[in-house]
Design a protein that fits this description.
The chain is built from 5 helices and no strands. It is an all-alpha fold and 220 residues long. Helix 1 packs across helix 3 and helix 1 runs parallel beside helix 4.
C-alpha cells in the first residue's frame, strides 16, 4: 500500500547523508520529523481500522459457523422425521455456510498479516522518530554552542582590535613627543652647549688680544 511505501522510505532515510547534503540540516530534520509524525498518526489510524476490520471478519466467520451448525441440526431433525429431502436441503445450506466461514478464515489470516505489517511499521517509525528527535536536539545544541563560540570569538577579536588601536595611539603619542623634544633641542641649546660656546668665545677673545699685543711696536 502507498502508506507503507511512504513509511518505508522515511524509515530507510539515512539521516547522516541528509545532514551532510543539506544547506540547513536543522530545518531539514525538523521538517522530516514533522513528516514522520504525520505518517505515524496515519499508520496508527490504519492499525486501528485494520484491527476493527479483522474483528468484523472474525464476527462474520463465527456467524457463518453458527449458521452451519444450525442447518446441520435441522438436517438431523429432518432425518429423525424421515424427511430425507428436507435433510438434503438443510445439509446443502450448512455446506454453503461452511464454505463462507472457510473464506472468512482466509480473509482473517490475510487481515492479520496486514495488521502485523502495520504494527511493525508503526514500531519502526517510532524508533526512527526517536532517532530523528535525538539528531535534531544534538544538532540544535551544536549550532547553539557554535553561535556562542562565534560570538565569544568576535568579542575577543574586538578586544584585540581595541588593544591594537590603543597601541597605535600610544606609538603616535610617543612619536609626537619625540618629535617635539627634537624640535625643542634644535631651537633651545642645552646648558652644556651654551657653556662650550662661551668658552670658545672667551678663547677667541684671548687669542685676539694676544695677537693685538704682539702687533704693537716695541717702544709702545
Amino acid at each position: 500500500m502507498a502508506l507503507l511505501d511512504r513509511v518505508t522510505t522515511l524509515i530507510k532515510a539515512n539521516l547522516n547523508d541528509l545532514i551532510d547534503k543539506a544547506e540547513d540540516p536543522e530545518k531539514l530534520l525538523k521538517q522530516l520529523l514533522l513528516d514522520m509524525q504525520n505518517q505515524y498518526m496515519q499508520v496508527k489510524t490504519q492499525v486501528a481500522m485494520a484491527i476493527a476490520d479483522q474483528h468484523q471478519l472474525e464476527k462474520k466467520q463465527q456467524e457463518n459457523l453458527a449458521s452451519q451448525r444450525e442447518w446441520l441440526r435441522k438436517a438431523e431433525f429432518a432425518v429423525h422425521k424421515n424427511e430425507e429431502g428436507l435433510a438434503r436441503v438443510a445439509i446443502e445450506r450448512s455446506l454453503t455456510y461452511e464454505t463462507a466461514a472457510t473464506n472468512f478464515a482466509q480473509q482473517i489470516e490475510d487481515q492479520s498479516h496486514s495488521v502485523q505489517m502495520l504494527r511493525d511499521a508503526l514500531h519502526r517509525l517510532e524508533q526512527k522518530i526517536a532517532e530523528t528527535k535525538a539528531k535534531t536536539e544534538l544538532l540544535v545544541a551544536q549550532h547553539r554552542r557554535a553561535r556562542l563560540m562565534l560570538k565569544a570569538g568576535a568579542g575577543n577579536l574586538q578586544d584585540v582590535q581595541t588593544e591594537a588601536r590603543f597601541d597605535r595611539a600610544r606609538t603616535k603619542v610617543a612619536d609626537v613627543e619625540a618629535e617635539g623634544l627634537g624640535q625643542l633641542a634644535n631651537g633651545l641649546p642645552s646648558a652644556e652647549q651654551r657653556l662650550l660656546e662661551m668658552e670658545k668665545a672667551d678663547q677667541v677673545d684671548r687669542l685676539l688680544a694676544d695677537l693685538k699685543t704682539r702687533a704693537l711696536p716695541a717702544g709702545d
